[in-house]
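User: Fold this; tokens only.

Assistant: Input:
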Amino acid sequence: MNCPFCNSNEIIASNSQAYALYDRHPVNPGHILIVTKRHVEDFFDTTIKEKEAINELIQECKTRLDHEYSPDGL
């Protein structure tokens, strides 16, 4: 499998189920991707535990973006 997210050295936040990294081709400055550590087709294939982990990272990344970019919205 040729996964563009595996073995990334660009991780900015992580927990036991998922990790976050800045998008290499951002739509906007600060564009962050949150990826599960387990390969899944899409968000709807994640477990409850993975969804909880993703939500934790969303909160952590929001704080980071607020500090670094002071966006008008997310």
